[in-house]
Amino acid sequence: MALPINVSDLINRRVIESARIEYKGDWNPEPILHSICAFANDIDNWGGGYIIIGVDEENGMPKLPVKGLSKSSIDRINKELLQKCNLIEPRYIPIVEQGAYEGKEIIVLWIPGGANRPYKCPSAFPTEKAVKSEKVYYIRKMSNSIRANQLEEKELFMLANNQPYDDRPNPAAKTEDLKSSLISEFLYTVNSDLYERSLTQPVAETASSMHLVGGPSEWKRPLNVGLMFFNERPDEFFPYARIEVVDKPDPAGVGMTEKIFTGPLDRQLRDALSYIKNYIIKEKIIKFPDQAEAVRVFNLPYAAVEESLSNAVYHKSYQIGEPITVTVTPERMEITSLPGPDRTITNADLQNRRLISRRYRNRRIGDFLKELKLVEGRNTGIPTILRAMEMNGSDMPSFETDEDRTYFTVILPVHKRFLLPETDAVPRKRQRRSLAEVKELVVAALKKNGNLSTSGLAAELGYTKVTSTLAKALKELMAEGAVQYSEPEKVRSRNQKICLIKGIHNE
């Protein structure tokens, strides 16, 4: 059975977060069983995890070249793995893939979040002294599998009846509703070893390998996440599962345009982003009279829009029959999805733009979007948005919700340059100052502010850099004995400043 993810990307943590991957240089059944149990419990709805056997860990990264497993040990490990997994209550068997990496044999265990959590397993295997060991619950904390405390055990039992919606079987659908062409396209895009097999085997087999079906053998149904990504019209199963982009150039609605994007979640996201990039985002080239380089700014930086909209697709509840809306006005863009953020994110967090969620609403949607490289890793989306806005010179975004957390809106302000009248958009060229005027301004600036660096003087005179006229003015003032360096013996010092010579210009 092949994995629906590229093994090289998995081993090198290019797609899956480090907290969801464990490296084991060899078969060590006790800690491996504990980690299987912890990933299956999936207390934070991350989507389970992976254990890679045959690869050592070094400082949190795979130790290369990989150690690998001996071919003679593969069958023994598979048999022991099945025996040990029978000790988990309720029974849980991970998806096992045997393969090679850099010419070495490895085994990859894929452990999706279990449908029958909570799971427990023996804390230790029987020995001569201890015939039987108690069974306990294990969970993941950061990159470790640990024994759950009493409070965490209660939380696991509360989660037992709260399986994420995207990971539930859909009773109204059939396995045939999953389109093999869309599945194969996805597997080809992520460079999965399962791609070739998907072209010839029944869709039910491929879907089973990708953990896209659930339920008892006599009542297999596609999971909601499978219908969201591998059906041409997921909105037939999840009403209004779409993106609506509304461009309102006038508050009264004059000239308003509306575009609706449907289809598999990744397609509608790409289509909506392509439309915004081509028709909504605009660029201005600003030329300054005192510098050769022009400055390019955008009304909205694409990276911030991309991350905001991708996060909306990721975190929206598909049980609520409302679309994701993108509303564009001359002043800002608003991206709204339902419901609001988890209450672990406080109002103060929203005001400080610090949105770190402990638990994800859609654990499987996130996995597919990450494998397609449409979203960032865990809790990195907001920093990406902030960085993009800052680099564009835009005002910082804001995040809104209500007291009941019924909605979540990301507000991206339009760059101020696009809010100015067209006649004022580009700075008017000033009349060039004479050398004598610059010399007078230098002396006045030093009188007013005290010692200044050359760049500080340039800024005080309204320049963006030290111009040739300013440099010439300083040279002449020094020759005249009007100004001097604060550290004459260290002309190239970073702390060097220009100062007035005492006794001069004291009037």
Task: Write the topology of this structure.
Elements: H1 7-11, E1 21-24, H2 29-41, E2 49-53, E3 57-58, E4 61-62, H3 71-85, E5 95-101, E6 104-111, E7 120-122, E8 135-141, E9 144-147, H4 150-159, H5 180-189, H6 195-198, H7 203-209, E10 213-214, E11 221-222, H8 224-230, E12 243-247, E13 257-261, H9 265-280, E14 283-286, E15 295-298, H10 302-315, E16 324-328, E17 332-337, H11 347-351, H12 363-371, H13 381-391, E18 398-400, E19 408-413, H14 435-449, H15 454-460, H16 468-479, E20 483-485, E21 498-500
Parallel strand pairs: 1-2, 12-16
Antiparallel strand pairs: 2-6, 3-4, 5-6, 7-8, 8-9, 10-11, 12-13, 14-15, 16-17, 17-19, 18-19, 20-21
Please count the beta strands (DSSP E, at least 2 residues each): 21
Shape type: globular
How is the largest sheet built, in terms of strand order? 13-12-16-17-19-18
Using the 3D structure, state the CATH architecture of the largest domain: 2-Layer Sandwich
CATH topological fold name of the largest domain: Heat Shock Protein 90
Low-confidence stretches: 423-429
Please compute the radius of gyration using only Cα atoms: 31 Å
Biggest sheet: strands, sense, closure? 6 strands, mixed
Number of structurally distinct domains: 4
As a percent range, the share of helical residues equals: 25-40%
Distance between the termini: 89 Å
Count helical runs. Answer: 16
| Rounded mean pLDDT score | 88
CATH level-1 class of the largest domain:
Alpha Beta
Structural class: alpha+beta
User: Beta-strand percentage?
Assistant: 15-25%
